[in-house]
Specification:
Length: 388
């Protein structure tokens, strides 16, 4: 077999005791995947657009055509072909493939009463998109299984509580969604570089009906755009008349967003930038994302107003942060400019930021590889102690 076969296995509508759930079968020449999406707000769809978003990366990586045992909207299909053209021009180890549905249909225009949803993780980008668009946004969506593992139940409960609190404060609906979609995407590409936008798009497509527009918070300003998993120049290509997908990029850089959120008590009380699994902690206060955000808030003089970062900012820990990609240096560079323009005398913190920037990339990668090996050893030793 030299093609992927995409099928919808089942659709379970919402009931009094359960949320809606859809399951796809994605059969590739090397492995079969059973992918489900369940949660509030999901709607029955006339086509398999969500499944295409999950399967197309594997096809482009291996050169396998995609056979769809269902229909696709005409405008969506045209958009996916344009997406493949732009994506493969940027990532040359992928190639465009043929998509062969059983048929096509003309999507109907979303009703005027359809809502506007935005993905929300509690991070700086999603908080900024939400606050900036609070007059239009009616729903926020969080995907369990996206950056928090499905079996990390304490963290899931904490995220749900935060999202619900933010939704109630702003008068919007909270739509929690759960999915195991990560595996089929990560087996054929890098999650940050190629895949995470497709995961968001797959869930967005399942909201079409009650929702007419879905916003994907952009990580980079319009001037900073670069090809990666969620990109200004490709996300919208998965739209059609039934659903508009908007990559929410704007003139604001990350530091502009942090400055804005520093004046928003709701954000300071609920900001979640961390994906590390640390028992009993909402933000670990140790990882690169925590360090960069805590550094910004400290320079702005509001870190003590952010209870979601319970540990003090240690300059030595800031200095130890390793940046394995050149593009990540933009964040400490912004913090350094912010500090020098603030006029504050934080010399230890300034030296720590400079240490991040000046560390060679190969050294950062070596240290991170060594750290992962040590963590794996600790994990195996812990298992042996339990066994014996």
């Amino acid at each position: 077999m030299t093609e992927i076969v995409l099928r919808q296995v089942s659709w379970e509508p919402v009931t009094e005791n359960s949320t809606a759930r859809i399951e796809f079968s994605i059969v590739t020449p090397v492995r079969d995947y059973q992918v489900y999406i369940s949660g509030r707000g999901l709607q029955p769809q006339p086509g398999l657009e969500a499944g295409v978003a999950l399967a197309v990366l594997a096809g482009m990586r291996k050169g396998w055509d995609l056979r769809v045992d269902g229909e696709l909207s005409e405008s969506f299909l045209a958009g996916v072909y344009e997406y493949m053209r732009r994506f493969t021009e940027s990532f040359t180890d992928f190639q465009p493939v043929n998509i062969k549905p059983l048929g096509t249909y003309k999507a109907t225009i979303a009703s005027k009463g359809a809502g506007c949803a935005s993905f929300f993780s509690g991070g700086a980008d999603s908080f900024f998109t939400l606050i900036k668009g609070k007059e239009q946004i009616t729903d926020i969506v969080y995907i369990h299984g996206f950056d928090v593992r499905l079996d990390d139940f304490p963290r899931r409960a904490a995220v749900d509580a935060t999202c619900l609190s933010v939704a109630e404060a702003l008068g919007v609906n909270y739509l929690p969604v759960e999915s195991n979609l990560g595996k089929v995407l990560q087996d054929f590409g890098s999650w940050p570089l190629h895949a995470h936008g497709l995961a968001l798009i797959a869930v967005a497509r399942m909201l079409a009906g009650n929702i007419g527009e879905v916003r994907i918070p952009g990580s980079f300003s319009v001037d900073e755009q670069k090809p990666w998993g969620s990109w200004l120049y490709t996300d919208h290509l998965f739209s059609d008349e039934r659903l508009q997908i908007v990559h929410d990029a704007c003139e604001a850089r990350r530091m502009d967003k942090i400055k804005h959120l520093a004046g928003e008590p709701l954000a300071l009380q609920n900001l979640r930038v961390c994906w590390e699994r640390v028992d009993g902690m909402y933000n670990c206060c140790r990882c690169e994302k925590c360090m960069r955000t805590m550094t910004s808030l400290e320079i702005l003089g509001v870190l003590d107003k952010a209870p979601v970062f319970p540990l003090p900012l240690d300059p030595a820990r800031v200095a130890a942060v390793c940046l394995p990609r050149a593009g990540m240096r933009i964040f400490p560079q912004e913090n350094l400019r912010l500090l020098r323009n603030s006029g504050r005398n934080l010399s230890a913190l300034e030296h720590a930021i400079c240490a991040q920037i000046e560390r060679p990339i190969w050294v950062a990668r070596f240290r991170l590889r060594w750290k992962k090996r040590m963590l794996r050893c600790q994990h195996h030793l812990a298992k042996l102690k339990v066994k014996f």
